[in-house]
Each structure stands twice: as C-alpha cells, then as structure tokens.
C-alpha cells in the first residue's frame, strides 16, 4: 500500500490504519466520535494527501475543462474554485472533483484518491488540445476544518484569510513553507485545505497541531471524515456516485449547467431531465434500533424499492441516518421505508437533507 508523507506522524500519534483506495490511511486516533465532535465544536486536522491533483495547461485548458465537466468553468476568475463532476456520455459519473482556476491557462483539478489513474486517462483522452499533467506526487494535502480553523491557521500564515471567500484560494506561506490555501472542505464546517510540497508536509502538520493546541484542535482520521460528510449529505464516490448513477439522480442538478457549451454527458442528462428520473437519492432516519450499511435493501412494504449507499449513527444528532437510492415514487419527505438488516426489517423515514447545517 502507498503511504502519505505524514505516515510517521500518524504512527507517533497512535493512529489506527485502514486500506483506502490502495493507501494506508489513519482511520482514527483518539476515536471517531471524539474526532467528529472536535471538528463540529473546535477544529480537526486531516491528512488527505492521498487525493490526486491533475493540471490542465495551455491556451485550450479552459475550453477542455468546459467539455469535460458539467459545471461552468467560464464563471470562474483567477483564484476561484468550484465543485464539479466528470461524466460519461451515458451521464454516469467518472468522478466528482474540485476545479481551481489558477489563471487563464492553468486549472488544477483535485480528484479522488482511488480514481487518480482512471481520471488522468479519461481527462487526457478528452482534453481537446490542452496539456494534461498528473501532479499528484508533487503535493501533500492537509484539511483543517471546524469553527476555530481560521483562528488556528492565522497563527502560522500571513495570508489575509478574511479576504478569501468560500471556494476561493491563494498562494502563500504556511509555517514558512510555500502552499496553496483553499477555503474548501468536506465536513460541513468552515475550514481550509492546504496543498504543499510532500517534503514540507511534516513541518506544516506539526505547526498546525502546535498552534491549534490551545484552541482544542485534534488530528482526525477517515472515520470522522465519513461521519461528518454524511451528516451534511455530501456524496462519496463509490457510494452515492458511480458510473451507474447520474448527477441528477444524486441530487446534484445544481452543478449541471445545461446552458453552457456542450459537455460530455449533456445529451443523456438532458434526456433524464425531460423524461423524469426513475430513481433518486434520499436521506432517511431509522425509527427503530439499527444501523444502515451500504448495500442493505430498502423496502416499501413488501416491495424492494432501493438500496442504502451510506449509513451511520450520527454523533451530532444522536440518530441512525443514511443515504440511499429509491424509486422516485418513494422519494417524498415523510415516506415510510423498511431496511433489511440481515433479515430483520427495521423502520425508517425519508427526511429533508442535509441532516446537519452549520450554525453561522
């Protein structure tokens, strides 16, 4: 398995590891619930160096990205980022990504760890004259998330963080090391993602933990990252997103810009929009004891109407929650469902998403 540049730091902190997309990653340190609550109440620091970075470069970079992604890259100015998706001609999802516009001829795409090689091949095959570079080995990535994240980061950078809006970024020093600092994240909280050279990762990591200690920062693993994103109903590739699901089915229609230039998957998505969806992603709460897991059957009475994609016991809400695809007739809030948990059907109810909203 691959290891991030921070592996020795995780060992020293007593992390437990899991295999995630071929990477040996920390799943928890003190415990998933404690780390989850630290992010919601104070701050958590994640190593997400397993994520990939692919650059589109040259005079055709923006045009190529417009054709490859469903969102409108033409709306971005230098120093802005946007959430988007790469789609197949069928409308299925290749990956969900964040596009960073560095300038008029450079776009940096952050992609999911398990999809780096696949995404690079797909982008390179459809780049329409742009130069495509897989720069994943050139970056480590840290995510500092939570209501105290900005206060912590301010102690180790001279960047004017108050001037950086959500989904914007700047280049500047962090702990004396060069970095790209983006106001993005995957937890439902305010926070920052910091891209730096792999050889600088340990210095930046330790500086953030030291600076954040008086404010209650904790290192956090993939376990808390998953429960945090699920409370906010943020989709995860391999769960809510795949080659067999479309952005419209996944509730990501707000990302799909039909009015822009043609893009891969547009015709299929337009057909879905015109003819209606046969299934949709919903959120649900269990009304009886149990935990929903990916792949469990969702029932409407005796009828199988869908399947669970993600589920957990929410540390913030104290309830068992989950996401799943159901036939469209069963998508309305308040609809009663049953979840087949190892042969025992447990009651659930469709609820409004997201499960959790940050208090501003």
Given helix and strand content, the structural type is: alpha+beta
Number of domains: 3
Q: According to CATH, what is the topology of the largest domain?
A: Gyrase A, domain 2
- Beta-strand percentage? 25-35%
User: How would you sum up the major sheet?
Assistant: 6 strands, mixed
Q: Note the overall shape.
A: globular
* End-to-end distance: 40 Å
Radius of gyration: 20 Å
Task: Provide the succession of SSEs.
Answer: HEEHEEHEEEHEEHEEEHEHHEEEEEE
**Fraction of residues in H or I helices:** 10-25%
CATH architecture of the largest domain: 2-Layer Sandwich
Question: Helix tally?
Answer: 8
The overall average pLDDT, rounded, is: 97
Task: Let me know the number of strands.
Answer: 19
Major sheet strand order? 10-11-12-9-3-13
User: At the fourth CATH level, what is the homologous superfamily of the largest domain?
Assistant: Probable tRNA modification gtpase trme, domain 1
CATH domain class of the largest domain: Alpha Beta
Low-confidence stretches: none
Description:
This protein is an alpha+beta fold. The protein has three domains: 136 residues, Gyrase A, domain 2, CATH 3.30.1360; 81 residues, Alpha-Beta Plaits (2-Layer Sandwich); 83 residues, Elongation Factor Tu (Ef-tu), domain 3, CATH 2.40.30.110. Helices cover 20% and strands 34% of the residues. The chain contains eight helices and 19 strands. A hairpin with a 2-residue loop joins strand 6 and strand 7.
């Amino acid at each position: 398995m691959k290891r991030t540049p921070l592996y020795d730091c995780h060992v020293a902190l007593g992390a437990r590891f899991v295999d995630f997309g071929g990477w040996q990653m920390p799943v928890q340190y003190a415990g998933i619930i404690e780390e989850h609550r630290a992010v919601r109440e104070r701050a958590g620091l994640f190593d997400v160096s397993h994520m990939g970075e692919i650059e589109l470069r040259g005079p055709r970079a923006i045009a190529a990205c417009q054709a490859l992604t469903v969102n409108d890259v033409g709306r971005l100015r230098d120093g802005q980022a946007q959430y988007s998706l790469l789609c197949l001609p069928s409308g299925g999802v290749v990956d969900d990504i964040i596009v960073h516009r560095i300038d008029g001829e450079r776009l940096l795409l952050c992609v999911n760890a398990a999809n780096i090689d696949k995404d690079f091949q797909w982008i390179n095959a459809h780049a329409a004259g742009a130069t495509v570079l897989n720069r994943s080995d050139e970056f480590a990535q840290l995510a500092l998330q939570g209501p105290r994240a900005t206060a912590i980061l301010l102690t180790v950078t001279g960047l004017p963080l108050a001037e950086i809006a959500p989904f914007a970024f700047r280049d500047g020093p962090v702990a004396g090391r060069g970095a790209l600092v983006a106001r993005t994240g995957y937890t439902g909280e305010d926070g920052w993602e910091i891209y730096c050279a792999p050889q600088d990762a340990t210095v930046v990591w330790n500086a953030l933990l030291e600076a954040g200690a008086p404010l209650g920062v904790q290192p956090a693993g993939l376990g808390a990252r998953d429960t945090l994103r699920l409370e906010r109903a943020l989709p995860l590739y391999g769960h809510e997103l795949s080659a067999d699901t479309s952005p419209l089915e996944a509730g990501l229609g707000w990302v799909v810009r039909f009015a822009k230039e043609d893009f891969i998957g547009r015709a299929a998505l337009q057909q879905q929009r015109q003819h209606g969806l046969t299934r949709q992603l919903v959120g649900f709460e269990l009304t009886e004891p149990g935990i929903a897991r990916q792949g469990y059957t969702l029932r409407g009475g005796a009828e199988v109407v869908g399947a669970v994609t993600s589920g957990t016991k929410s540390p913030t809400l104290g309830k068992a929650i989950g996401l799943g695809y159901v036939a469209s007739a069963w998508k309305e809030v308040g609809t009663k469902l049953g979840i087949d948990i190892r042969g025992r059907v447990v009651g659930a109810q469709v609820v409004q998403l997201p499960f959790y909203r940050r208090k501003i």
